[in-house]
Design brief:
2 copies of one chain form a homodimer.
Chain A (H helix, E strand, L loop, with lengths): L22 H22 L1 E2 L1 H5 L1 H10 L6 E4 L6 H6 L4 H4 L29 H15 L7 E6 L6 H10 L6 E7 L11 H10 L8 H4 L3 E5 L5 H11 L5 E7 L7 H5 L6 E2 L18 H14 L4 E5 L8 H7 L4 E3 L4 H13 L3 E7 H4 L3 H11 L4 E5 L15 H6 L5 E3 L4 H13 L5 E4 L21 E4 L3 E6 L4 H15 L4 E4 L8 H10 E11 L4 H9 L5 E7 L9 H7 L4 H16 L1
Parallel strand pairs in A: 2-3, 3-4, 4-6, 5-6, 8-9, 8-10, 10-11, 11-13, 12-13, 15-16, 15-17, 17-18
Antiparallel strand pairs in A: 1-7, 14-16
């Protein structure tokens, strides 16, 4: 039910509906939308600070420009909530029953006012340049404005710089709004921010100006949270005939004191109590991340040259605790995944023991660095990858590709632990050996305990948790419990005493065990929490290709899933124990006949 | 045999050997090394202009610093020939019998003066920052200088910017030498070069300075080809206690007029006549690239909104001819593969029909853009990929990964034509349809002609060139002729009348054909010019996993090959027709028993 039928926003179905409003009404709108952001985020989770900070500039954009004829492209697009409310999607914020109807990012399938699905940073300028170039070619007399909105934090990603560099070549309309709230996800990192501060401190007057250096027109806006100012600025630059950078100073979290006081915490929040600020879900007592940090702290304290590197997402890995204990060993390179990987390689070359913390979906941004710097050079960096999992989240952040894109590369050992003791055992070995880069896939399911069956992973010996016959289940990493359950049901339903294997690695195979399985097994089943195409299962398929062994693979198909509940996804993907057992049964029968 | 036993360079076994030389001797050394670069490059091919331009700064580095205690990291490292001659590898330039002993890039296995295998651009600053950070941690009192040498062209790659941004955080020794020769591989592209020009024009005095903006110390050197100047500059900055950018103006091709007059042609050259400048190999009469450009020109002339986009490598694709005919439809974004892909997506969204030209090894740099911008957004961009092949070249530029990293992604159709008519047929379809991004893998083998068996590739129907039984050969793209030869030998040696299939796509499979193959075939063989891990073959393995069909995959193993002649590599990889037939024979026999 609409929680606020009295709100002014109810009258806004299209952006044009705000054009007749006066300044006071527009300000009221901003206030309402801030409240709606907080109500929705506190109920279902979402980006808080980024959205609170851009209310005025969003309203001003839609007041001055004519969307979708004029086009705004939101970088990352996690700050597009107000844009969504003003472009026909207000019910997704007014009515809790509809909170889940609207995604947290722009999506052309939601609205003609969105042009791209976007969830990764630093793409908006390159996208805007492309839109402008297409306009100049296809529709040169359209007087269509193209506006990119990019945060200061996103500017540290190399693609943003590549975009700026090419934007400067354009000889037609392009407006790049740099939303400078002096924060990234965590703190801004790097020399760029010294320069931006100088520009803010001089009201944009400093002669040293990276944008002008590149030949871009430039204008500073001291208070981007003042609606009248933003309206005036947009009116002045509308239909400009060349690229301009609007450097707009805003406040992240504007209008909600807790989000201003703790900008990191309120960048994105899981559901929380709006009164107390407390999280609605309590943190688990023990976690894989905490165990990793404990181990790193212990190694530093034992005198090992261990360092921790990450690209702007320390919160995902509990790295605050490492930084607090060993600030000189902690490196956040900002949103710059390429740099994080390449720098880590060099630190290993120089004798340090770097441990990189990466998210599956963002590590994609450093693929060439994985190939050309990590795999080719073989220095013993260690990498922890989180978020490598089929998930109920946005398609923009799908974490199912990492096994495919890492396991196909030479020289990298990609380990998939099934429990916390095994993960720490792998981490210790990775930090002790000098031969190979090691990536460890942190499980994202319920934390399990266990006893590692080896303490060196230079050669992989499969851990055969149960020796059976006929069918062998290879359950990878976080899907270990699923493998156990499949075994249980195979026994119960089909009276098959299946073998259960922890393969530990998605890159190295235990050829001996695979060979001997052929003696008393007809079917090998692989279960992995990731993409089937190029995944672990296909490695096993290839091994058994020329033999009589039948192989069945379970994992994610080659598709994007967008905000689908996990139980539904598992059902779609044939990943419930019942479905897996049914599929095995069919092959067992075909093997008999 | 040493061609120049009288050269001064013969006395140089280690960098320290030049420290006692006087300026005239050092200048003589520069002249000799220029001659040796030209002799070697004209004989076996290599980078010309980049090496001729850095003679003085290389000699000065080794004269002033103490390598390998002090460390120089060459960006791309294609300009490291002089460094190699001065660090014990002169015979690779003096003696034609040893030309092939020394690779064209830095390589730690060649010399302790090299720290990384490097062949892709824009990595050196991030590497140098990592080396410096490791030094500060592991060896803080070592007074070790870390020097990165990066060309102006390489600065357009986002990773270079990420590196600069993080370099500015360093509070210890780091020297970033920007070797500004006013050229990339082709022309420099983008606003950055306006700013660099302003710095050159003002002798580094302009207040607008991107390096200082980021908080980096800065010094301009007007003539980086003057040995005395470079020695003095290096002496002054040696042991500096903070990061500094040396902006050094040099001339690409210095000392060899043809390389100055045509800097693009002499960036890298295949073997050529040193007197006439003529290529030793004549260009083939017809080529896949020429056919593609003919088609694009025709489409533009027919009024289609086709545009061509590339990232600094127009020469690889004959794009000069397209640019000459349709300059307004031609976009070179500089060395910025991420930007090229993201901008192309937006151009497609805006109604243009972008055709992207990418090299397999460099497209790796835009992997996240393939996932997050291309696959997720599904705009109908078209991409031509060259260099996707097992090659005799450097490990740094291995082109065997593209099938793995593209075919595992949703929504992208990756087509592998076997002949030029099929390639153009695929290109026409790709530019006509609106449903899907299409990538086309240009064959790198002998140009073949043929008749396409379909003209829409929305659904893939396998082209069964010959219907046989027992064994089916699926030969992908450039390996079509190999497939034909395997079929011939199977008939001749084993009297097997094998089926021969052109699968056309490495992403979509023809389930109907694969299904019916089971009726009268026992073995399916896949042959692809790329990585087996995550490749096309594994897709077929997975399809037949639960069945009785045996599958054999041929392709490249998960390893880097470094300058190995192709016939040797094929032998290693079991890719000669004889080996493939032998392997098939073994499985045929095992199937009988």
């Amino acid at each position: 039910m609409n929680q606020h039928p009295d709100f002014l926003i109810n009258e806004v179905n299209e952006p044009q509906d705000i054009k007749s409003m006066n300044l006071d009404q527009l300000k009221e709108l901003a206030q309402e939308m801030r409240q709606l952001v907080l109500e929705r985020d506190s109920a279902v989770g979402g980006h808080v600070g980024p959205n609170l900070g851009v209310m005025e500039l969003t309203i001003a954009f839609h007041y001055v420009f004519d969307s979708p004829h004029d086009k705004v492209i939101w970088d990352v697009s996690h700050q597009s909530y107000a844009h969504k409310m003003l472009t026909g999607r207000k019910l997704g914020f007014l009515d809790p029953d509809h909170y889940e109807d609207v995604s947290g990012y722009t999506d052309p399938s939601e609205s003609p006012h969105d042009f791209f699905k976007v969830g990764h940073t630093s793409t908006s300028i390159a996208l805007a340049v492309g839109m402008a170039q297409a306009r100049d070619l296809v529709n040169p007399d359209s007087h269509e404005n193209v506006v990119a909105v990019i945060g200061d934090g996103s500017l540290s990603g190399g693609l943003a710089f590549e975009g700026l560099n090419n934007a400067a070549k354009l000889k037609s309309n392009l407006i790049i709004l740099v939303n400078d709230n002096q924060m990234s996800i965590d703190e801004d990192q790097g020399g760029l921010y010294r320069g931006l501060k100088e520009l803010r401190d001089t009201q944009g007057q400093s002669a040293n100006n990276i944008f002008k250096f590149m030949g871009l027109d430039y204008r500073y806006v001291a208070d981007g949270n003042d609606l009248k100012t933003m309206i005036d600025v947009f009116k002045e630059v509308k239909n400009i005939d060349h690229p301009i950078v609007l450097h707009v100073n805003t406040q992240k979290g504007k209008g909600y004191q807790p989000a201003i006081d703790d900008q990191k915490k309120y960048h994105w929040r899981a559901p929380f109590d709006l009164q107390t600020g407390e999280s609605k879900q309590s943190a688990p007592k023990e976690s894989y991340s905490a165990a990793v940090i404990d181990e790193l702290n212990a190694q530093v304290e034992a005198g090992k040259p261990v360092v921790a590197i990450n690209a702007a997402i320390p919160g995902m890995f509990d790295l605050g605790r490492f930084k607090a204990a060993h600030a000189d060993r902690y490196f956040d390179v900002g949103i710059a995944e390429q740099d994080s990987v390449t720098t880590a390689v060099a630190m290993a070359a120089g004798g340090a023991r770097p441990v990189l913390f990466e998210s599956s979906t963002f590590l994609q941004r450093a693929y060439d660095q994985l190939v050309h710097d990590v795999a080719l050079n073989e220095y013993p960096i260690v990498m922890i990858v989180r978020g490598g999992t089929i998930s109920s989240g946005s398609a923009t952040h799908q974490g199912t590709f990492d096994i495919s894109y890492i396991s196909s590369l030479p020289n990298i050992e990609y380990l998939a632990p099934t429990n916390v003791e095994e993960m720490i055992s792998m981490l210790r070995w990775a930090l002790k050996q000098n031969d190979t880069p090691v990536v460890i896939r942190q499980p994202e399911h319920e934390l399990l305990h266990g006893t590692p069956s080896q303490d060196s992973y230079a050669t992989i010996d499969y851990d055969i948790a149960h020796h059976g016959s006929e069918v062998a289940i290879m359950a990878v990493g976080g899907f270990w419990q699923l493998g156990e359950e499949v075994c249980r049901q195979l026994k119960e339903k089909l009276n098959i005493d299946a073998t259960l294997i922890n393969p530990k690695s998605v890159t190295s195979i235990d050829q001996r065990d695979l060979h001997y399985l052929q003696e008393d097994h007809d079917i090998v089943v692989t279960i992995e929490d990731g993409n089937l195409s190029g995944g672990f299962g296909e490695t096993i398929d290839r091994y058994y290709g020329p033999t009589n062994m039948k192989v069945l693979n379970f994992g994610a198909p080659r598709e994007f899933a967008d905000n689908v509940p996990l139980e539904v996804l598992y059902e779609w993907y044939h990943l419930t124990p019942e479905q897996i057992v049914d599929d095995i049964e069919r092959v067992v029968h075909s093997a008999i006949y």
